[in-house]
Amino acid sequence: MSVLIKGGRVITAADDYVGDVFVEDERISLIGESLDVEAERTIDARGKYLLPGCIDPHTHLDMPFGGTITTDDFTSGHTAAAFGGTTCHVDFCIQPPGQSFAQALETWHAKANGKSIIDVGFHIAVTDLKDGGSLEELARLPDQGVTSYKLFMAYKGALMVDDETLFKTMQVAAETGALVMVHAENGDAIDVLVKAALAEGKTEPKYHALTRPPETEGEATNRAIQLARVADCNLYVVHVSCKESIDPIAVAREKGWKTWGETCTQYFFVDYTYLERPDFEGAKYVYTPPPRPKENQEHLWAAIRSDILSVVSTDHCAFNWDGQKTLGRDDFSKIPNGGPGIENRLQMMHEFGARAGRITLNRMVELLATNPAKLFGLYPRKGTIAVGSDADMVIFDPEKKVTLSAATHHSNVDYNLFEGTEVTGSPEIVLRRGEIIVEGDELRAQPGSGQFVKRARFGEKLVGAGAMVTP
Ligand code: URP
Ligand code: ZN
Ligand code: ZN
C-alpha cells in the first residue's frame, strides 16, 4: 500500500513545516516540499497537522488486579488508543508470584495475539525473585526485546517488592542496559495508614488519597533515585503526581544522574476534591498515586516544560464504575485502583497544553511520542516523522470540536475521567505502519494487525526490522 499525504503541517519534536509525505509499504520513504509521485491513496492534509503516532509507555490492558480484571482487552484498548492517535504502546506484563518471566511473557503474548490493532511492546513487572523468576532469567529478557524492568514499591501484599528485590533488579539492569521503572510510594507506611483509617470506620473513596500522602511518594522517589545511583542503572519514575516527587527528580536531573520522570494526563486535570464526590462517584478517581491537591497541577505543567518530567503517559487501567469500582463500596481499600485515559491524551494535551500556550506543539510531540520512543528503545523507527521511520502518523484536525464522553469513547469502560470536557482538535486519520487504521468515525484495521515490537536497550537505536509478529 502506498499513501501520499499532501500539504500537511508536519510537526515533530524538532520541526514544523508544510510538506508532502510519501509512504510505501510500512515506512516513510520520501518527504518533500511538493512530491509528484503515484500513490494508491492520496490524502489532502492542507490545514491539518501531521504528527508522529503517539506512544503510550504506561498501560494495563487485560490485567488482573484488585480482585478483578481491567475492562479493556487488547482489542478494545487498542481501538480506543487508535482513535486517540496512539499507534504504539508498552504494556506491563506482570509476573505472577511463583511464575518465571517466560511464563508471564507467554501469558501476555497470548492476551495480545490476534487482538492487537496498534503495535505493542512489554515491560516486565518483577514481583518475585525467590520462587519465580531468577536474576539470570531477568538478564536474558533484553535479548527478547523486553528492555525495561518495572518494580512496584507499593501495593503491599500484592505487587510490592522489598528493597532487596528492587536493588538486585537495578544491578541486573546496570549490566544488561535495561531501564528500571518504579512505581514510587512507600507501601509499608501506606499499609499502616490504610489499616488505621479502616479501624476508625473511614471507608469512603476520599480516604484512598488521605492514606497515601504526597510525602510517601516523595520518600520512595528519592529512595529509588539514590539506590539507582548506587547500582549505576538508568531509572524512570512512573506517574509522578506531586511536588514531593518532582523535587527529588529535579535534583537528580540537575546533577546529571540517570533519572527520568513521567506524569499522566489525569494529574493535570483531576484533583483531590473529585474523590469527595457523593454517591460513591468519587470511586471513579481512585487510582494510584491519587488525585492531589490542585496546586500540584501548576508544578506538573512547569515540570513538563522544563524537562524535569519527560513523558506524559496515561496509566490506562480501566475498571467499570458499576460492578468493579463498586467492589469497594464499603471499604475504599477494596476499590480496584486505576483509571481510564488511553483515548484522550492527545486531545487533552493539545487543548490545555498547546492551545492554552503552556507548551509548544513541538514539546507536545516530544512528550507524547518522541521521548517515549527514545526512552523505551523504539526510536527512530517510531516517535518521529522521518525517511525510514515506520509510517505511524496522525492527521490531526486542529479545528475539530469534540466533547469527551463515555457515550462516544471507544474503551469498554462505563465512564470517562474528562466527561463533558470540550476540546478543539482531534485525530482525523491515523496510520499505523502505513495502514489507515482510523478514518473519521471508522475503525479500518482488523484485530491481529498490530505487531509485537522488540525494543532496543536503553540508549540504543531501533533500526531495521524491529517489529515482529507475535509468536
Ligand atoms: O491506580 C493505578 N495506577 N493502577 C494501575 C497500577 C499502577 O500503579 O500503575
Ligand atoms: Zn503504579
Ligand atoms: Zn500503571
Descriptive keywords:
single chain; 471 residues; alpha/beta; nine-stranded mixed β-sheet; eight-stranded parallel β-sheet; 11 helices; 27% helix; binds N-(aminocarbonyl)-beta-alanine; binds zinc ion
Q: How much of the residues is beta strand, in percent? A: 15-25%
Number of helices: 11
Principal-axes geometry comes out as globular
Biggest beta-sheet profile: 9 strands, mixed
Q: How far is it from the N-terminal to the C-terminal residue, by CA?
A: 25 Å
What is the C-alpha radius of gyration, as a whole number of Å? 21 Å
- Backbone structural class: alpha/beta
Describe, in short, the structure shown.
This protein has eleven helices and 21 strands. With 471 residues, the chain is an alpha/beta fold.
